[in-house]
Design brief:
InterPro entries: aa-tRNA-synth_Ia, Ile-tRNA-ligase_type2, Rossmann-like_a/b/a_fold. The protein has about 100 residues and is mainly α. It contains four helices and no strands.
């Protein structure tokens, strides 16, 4: 996706560049999602995880669940890419 081929290139790709690339990808596909929903005759409020207000709402909801002991810490299986020496994204796992 970012043209990264190993651990060294991932480490050199700093956080600012990563955030910039992710933001541009979200914005690139925003209109395609809107158009797809219009075809289904459904126009939702298109929220993006990069929006602070959206994420603040999610953290608030999670805190409410946690305070009511409705959320817990658990363990799950996390796939690992030896080639990239990192965990793959969900979409990469689906494509495998």
């Amino acid at each position: 996706m970012f043209g990264l081929s190993g651990k060294e290139t991932v480490e050199k790709f700093d956080l600012a560049n990563y955030n910039h690339e992710c933001r541009s990808i979200v914005m690139r596909y925003r209109e395609e999602w809107r158009h797809a929903f219009e075809k289904l005759d459904h126009v939702p409020t298109l929220t993006k995880t990069m929006d602070s207000s959206f994420m603040d709402s999610n953290w608030w909801i999670f805190k409410q669940l946690f305070d009511k002991v409705m959320a817990y810490q658990g363990h799950g299986v996390m796939p690992y890419s030896r080639r990239m020496t990192t965990t793959p994204r969900r979409i990469e796992i689906i494509r495998m």
